[in-house]
Amino acid sequence: MTRAFQRIMAFTLLYLIVFGYLAIRAGGTEFIFYSICMVIFITLVLVVHRAVRLSNGVLLALSIWGFLHMAGGTVRPPWLDGEVIYAWQIIPSVLRYDQMTHCFGFAAATMTCWQGLSRALRRPAQPTVGLVFLAALMGMGLGTINEMIEFAATQIDPENGVGDYTNNALDLVFNAIGSTIAAIWIFVRPPRR
Fold first, then answer.
1. pLDDT, tens digit, 9 for 90 and up, residues 60-77
2. Contact (Cβ atoms closer than 8 angstroms) between residue 96 and residue 86
3. Mean pLDDT of 125-142
4. Longest dimension (CA), the chain
């Protein structure tokens, strides 16, 4: 275990404990459910990391994504009059905090898929259009799983504020935007030596 990995894990565990506590204290069944999902996802990332040796940059991006997600559903800043950060309209009627989190998160997920795909090919993969497109589709597929989890949360607590059909569709759009940005970055960046 490298020092960077230890720091990333410490940061992840710290925010998971803090936001999990805040969710329990607030009695938010939705975010208690999400906290359990986060533990499962962290475990899956650790399994993937053991097999693939994800870069520290990807591990940090995944951790930051988790932080943004957990903060989004538990932190209630004063400027939002008691609403959680997920309700924050960064650009009113155009861009919400939730959509930015989806875009960032599925860019990180696509980078994870790319590193896994490269490892599966048992050689440093050259970013061809086909392979990069495949990584982006994999990231978008993970976005679909995320939306199914959000749907499950609406069944647990219909008043949880996850959102309606429009929110679901916008989440999918921003998942695709994040995956596309990551795919373009993979394709145009200089190859590692």
1. 999 999 999 989 888 889
2. yes
3. 90
4. 52
How far CA 185 is from CA of 53, 123, 124, 193, in Å, comes to: 20, 20, 16, 17
Two tokens, residue 12: 């992840």
Structural contact between residues 160 and 29, judged by C-beta atoms closer than 8 angstroms: yes
Task: Give me the residue spans of the domains in the chain.
Answer: 3-188
Whether pLDDT at 142 is above 60? yes
Q: Evaluate whether 54 touches 48 at the Cβ level (below 8 Å).
A: yes
CB 127 within 8 Å of CB 115: no
Identify the top-confidence range among 12-16, 29-33, 85-89.
12-16
Residue that has been written with the tokens 């155009």 in this structure: 94
Q: Does 176 or 29 have the greater pLDDT score?
A: 176
Q: What is the 3-state secondary structure (H, E, C) of the chain?
A: CCHHHHHHHHHHHHHHHHHHHHHHHHCCHHHHHHHHHHHHHHHHHHHHHHHHCCCHHHHHHHHHHHHHHHHHHHCCCHHHCCCCHHHCEEECCCEEHHHHHHHHHHHHHHHHHHHHHHHHCCCCCCCCHHHHHHHHHHHHHHHHHHHHHHHHHHHHCCCCCCCCHHHHHHHHHHHHHHHHHHHHHHHHCCCCC
What span, in angstroms and rounded, lies between the C-alpha atoms of 105 and 85? 16
This prediction has a pTM of 0.86
